[in-house]
């Protein structure tokens, strides 16, 4: 991905008011048709994913992550173990975020990638791709984004201040939840239709909306779900049994769980700034959805906390089928082609810190309500 210059407008906005940025009026916003037309026309040649880039990026990230995880387990000194743990979290976080690409890929253009990703990372980390497939695409549905039917949306900016630390705490406990989901509830649900409905509906998706309940899978997706769940359950049950019997010492087990927790927390932080979270449940136009989403195109740090193209999250909502490695070029083209009056520049922000401050300030305003 290219390193791009920041649009000046959001930089000036944050410099003038780094915390109390104005709320964008989303309800009833008309579409910026010039922006939508430019987005479609200027990126037609960028739509094909590169197998070489996908496989190389994923395999190198996973290999580095597992090597660093081994280092964190085996390092004799605490300092080296912690340093290795940080590298493991960052590398496995990047590798795990290919689950987002899997949900959007036309798999005929990248044969075997979903299977390879699940075998090498999804199943060993108890995070098979069915947990996101069939969930994330609803988030991109024109009439469901930001509504009660969206599994990946909560109006966090309009909620009480305590919701933000709770939001992060849930991710901290994610590896325990995955261990219970695949090591206990999943196998037990095979003997109870009622429990199975609960497991499928409530505990089989990476969702943040507690009101969302997913439907049972059908057809080819049901077959994908089945082998992925079996694999993740074998991993989870094996871990539980080996730890309980002393075959697996506590240190490697706890290190493995801590790394998964670190990946989950980092992803949850990214999620907090993926949108402005200012929609109150109404269906929105594509432009309004775009402006409720966030690009952080400049600097080095976004490559770490929003890798695999997710620093261009607003642009991704404009062009959800665009492969991650093409988003930088698409952003460059659109930034050059569209003037400052275009809505395109309104979703570009300079820093994670400024976005977190904006969100926290918004929740503080709800305290008196």
TrEMBL record:
Keyword Repressor in record: no
Pfam families: FA_desaturase (PF00487)
Protein name, as recorded: Fatty acid desaturase
Keyword Transmembrane helix: yes
All copies of domain Fatty acid desaturase, residue ranges: 80-340
Alphabetic keyword roster: Membrane, Transmembrane, Transmembrane helix
Coiled coil residues, start to end: none
Domain of life: Bacteria
Ranges annotated as spanning the membrane: 112-132, 162-188, 230-248
GO biological process, one term: lipid metabolic process
Species per Swiss-Prot/TrEMBL record: Sphingomonas suaedae
């Amino acid at each position: 991905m290219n390193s791009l210059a920041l649009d000046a407008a959001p930089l000036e906005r944050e410099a003038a008011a780094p915390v109390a940025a104005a709320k964008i009026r989303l309800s009833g916003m008309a579409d910026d048709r010039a922006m939508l037309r430019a987005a479609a026309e200027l990126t037609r040649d960028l739509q094909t994913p590169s197998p070489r880039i996908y496989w190389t990026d994923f395999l190198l990230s996973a290999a580095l992550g597992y090597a660093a995880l081994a280092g964190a387990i085996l390092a004799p000194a605490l300092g080296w173990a912690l340093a290795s743990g940080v590298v493991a979290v960052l590398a496995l976080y990047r590798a795990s975020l290919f689950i987002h690409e899997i949900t959007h890929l036309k798999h005929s253009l990248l044969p075997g990638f979903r299977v390879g990703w699940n075998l090498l990372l999804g199943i060993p980390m108890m995070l098979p791709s069915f947990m996101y497939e069939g969930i994330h695409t609803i988030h991109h549905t024109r009439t469901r984004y930001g509504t009660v039917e969206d599994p990946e949306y909560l109006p966090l900016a309009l909620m009480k201040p305590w919701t933000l630390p709770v939001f992060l705490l849930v991710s901290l406990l994610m590896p325990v939840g995955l261990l219970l989901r695949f090591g206990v509830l999943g196998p037990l649900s095979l003997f109870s239709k009622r429990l199975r409905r609960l497991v499928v509906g409530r505990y089989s998706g990476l969702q943040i909306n507690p009101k969302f309940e997913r439907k049972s899978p059908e057809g080819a997706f049901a077959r994908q779900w089945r082998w992925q769940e079996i694999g993740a359950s074998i991993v989870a049950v094996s871990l539980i049994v080996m730890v309980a019997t002393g075959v697996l010492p506590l240190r490697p087990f706890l290190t493995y769980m801590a790394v998964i927790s670190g990946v989950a927390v980092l992803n949850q932080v990214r999620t907090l700034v993926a949108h402005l979270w200012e929609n109150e449940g109404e269906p929105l136009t594509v432009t309004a959805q775009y402006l409720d989403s966030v690009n952080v195109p400049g600097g080095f740090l976004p490559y770490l906390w929003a890798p695999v193209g997710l620093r261009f999250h607003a642009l991704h909502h404009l062009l959800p089928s665009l492969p991650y490695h093409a988003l930088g070029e698409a952003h460059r083209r659109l930034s050059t082609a569209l003037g400052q009056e275009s809505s395109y520049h309104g979703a570009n922000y300079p820093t994670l810190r400024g976005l977190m401050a904006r969100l926290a300030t918004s929740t503080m305003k709800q305290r008196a309500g």
